[in-house]
Design a protein that fits this description.
Structural class: alpha+beta
Number of helices: 15
Radius of gyration: 31 Å
Number of strands: 23
Strand order of the largest sheet: 14-19-18-17-20-23-22
Largest sheet: 7 strands, antiparallel
Strand content: 15-25%
Helix content: 25-40%
Shape: elongated
Length: 531
């Protein structure tokens, strides 16, 4: 954490000597002055600061009037809100300061008007995500509360020394480029921990603790530091406030009360949801090209597997013209979990299905990276998804694990039949609740670098959206072709990595479907009845 600490020292200069909570502007904020007043900038977010209503009025007369040469708060002249607000913001931008210092500064510049308006200004900065809170203990920064986004839920009530707190089940302690941090997907702030004191408090709160007792539990923690750190962790939703202490003989266990809606969430789901949406994301968001100039983008087409065999050509225009009306196909779509093994799917049918949902029509360059045009949509035309047919029964095609070479309309052999491919087939059969092995399993993978090279904070969420698009396209196309299809809700990515030999961080399965011939019990036109 030396780099993070050095960053603090370079920005703030001498460390504060007062214990408690100090305030500073968030590190990525720029303060600007123009003819219209003051404005704060962070990324593409801009907030113009207009003075509170009270700050635009004349200051009340004091013992020393204007003729006596009194200051702004002593005379009866108008208050320049830009002056006192600018002085407060300059102080916040220069380093961590306590509210008493800001109060004194506001009084000096604008008298009672500035003092009364200061709290309104600080509240606005806090809920707008422009302030960081710094917890100081024995003259050393131990924690820093950093906002995520610009919609910050304000603290409704400060912790009392008698309050009982406990670590939230959603709390996450991890390291990033700034150092060690603790956070919760329920909170709109993160807490950076700058010494061993913070992690020790987090560990102690794995069991219920009284706020006033924390200083006695952790070496180097003062009373004021303990209260400030506990409040920061509570406001970040890292700590939960518990019911009053249980009576004699009661079990001192987790008695956190959750809403019925929150109780349904797991940590992975909630963390993924909040961090992939605008507001509580980290870093940039969207098509920021975070790796441009640092790493080469992946090509639009994946390197082919060998040996490769061409697939029967497909006339997409003719295939579409033979389809039933679109409305009929939509109404007839269903998940079919059985195949006709007496008349399996043919290589011609598989070739048509693959061409219609994944074939490349053209490859082009947008000035950043290679892109491709296909029949299904993809964010940024990235098309990071790949299809790997796992064939058990297909007329005209030997069993094995293949890769669909979307640019050449061919199949590349990835793995001959064996234990690893059998395991993948068994997973699909059990997940689809089928009684016999599926004729073909379409394993959907993502080349993650295609999305992550361009998109920030939302890349994996975008990949999953693309999986949904591909599922629907495959369902409708297979239905129109009279094939059986069933999308699966999960699969084993480790088993695919073992069978394919592909690095799971580079490319891994994100979806699976089973396809095959319709059972003989379903007449060729049975789907038209809306079964």
């Amino acid at each position: 954490m030396a780099d993070a600490r050095q960053d603090t020292l370079e920005r703030e200069g001498p460390q504060p000597t007062v214990d408690g909570v100090l305030l500073t502007l968030r590190r990525d904020t720029t303060l600007e002055r123009d003819g219209h007043g003051l404005a704060l900038f962070e990324g593409h977010i801009r907030m113009r600061l207009r003075p509170p209503a009270a700050a635009t009025t004349s200051a009340p007369s004091g013992p020393a009037g204007p003729a006596d040469g009194g200051g702004p708060g002593d005379g009866g002249g108008p208050v320049d809100a830009t002056d006192w607000m600018g002085a407060v913001l300059d102080a916040l931008a220069a380093g961590a300061v306590d509210e008493d210092q800001l109060f004194t500064l506001a009084m000096e510049r604008a008298g009672d008007t500035g003092a009364l308006s200061l709290q309104l200004l600080l509240r606005r900065l806090e809920v707008g995500g422009w302030l960081e809170r710094v917890v100081v203990c024995a003259g050393v920064e131990v924690a820093r509360m950093v906002p995520l986004g610009h919609v910050i839920e304000p603290s409704t009530r400060g912790l009392r020394p008698t309050d009982r707190v406990q670590l939230s089940r959603f709390a996450v302690l991890r390291r990033d480029h700034r150092g060690l941090l603790v956070e919760s997907p329920r909170g709109s702030t993160q807490v950076l921990l700058d010494t061993v004191v913070g992690p020790a408090v987090v560990a102690a709160c794995a069991r219920p603790q009284v706020v006033g007792d924390l200083a006695d539990l952790v070496t180097g923690l003062t009373g004021a530091g303990a209260r400030g750190l506990a409040q920061a962790l509570f406001d970040a939703a890292v700590l939960d406030r518990l019911d009053p202490a249980p009576g004699p003989g009661a079990s001192d266990t987790d008695d956190t009360v959750e809403s019925a809606a929150l109780a349904l969430w797991s940590l992975p789901d909630l963390l993924f949801h909040t961090r992939s949406r605008i507001g509580r994301h980290e870093g940039g968001y969207g098509g920021t090209y975070p790796w441009e100039g640092r790493a080469e983008p992946l090509p639009a087409l994946r390197a082919p597997f060998a040996p490769t065999r061409p697939l029967p050509p497909v006339d997409l225009g003719r295939a579409g013209a033979l389809d039933p009306p679109f409305g009929d196909v939509v109404r007839a779509r269903r998940s079919t979990r059985s195949h006709d093994d007496e008349a399996p799917i043919t290589v011609e049918q598989l070739a048509e299905l693959l061409a219609r949902v994944a074939a490349v029509r053209s490859v082009f360059h947008d000035g950043h990276q290679e892109l491709s045009d296909r029949q299904v949509p993809s964010g940024g035309a990235l098309h990071e998804l790949e299809l790997y047919p796992l064939v058990s029964r297909c007329v005209g095609l030997d069993p094995g694990l293949y890769h669909y070479e979307a640019g050449a309309h061919a199949l590349g052999l990835v793995k001959e039949p064996g234990p690893s491919t059998t395991l993948l087939t068994q997973y699909a059969m059990r997940t689809a609740t089928m009684e016999t092995p599926p004729q073909v399993v379409l394993l959907v993978t993502a080349r993650f670098g295609r999305a992550m090279w361009k998109y920030e904070s939302m890349a994996y969420a975008l990949v999953l959206k693309h999986v949904g698009v591909l599922y629907e396209a495959t369902y409708l196309t297979a239905t129109a072709m009279g094939l059986a299809v069933c999308g699966l809700g999960g699969g084993n990515s480790d088993a695919f990595a073992a069978a394919s030999g592909i690095d799971a961080h580079e490319e891994s399965t994100v979806g699976e479907l089973v396809v095959g011939s319709r059972p003989a019990t379903l007449a060729p036109d049975a789907w038209r009845a809306g079964a």
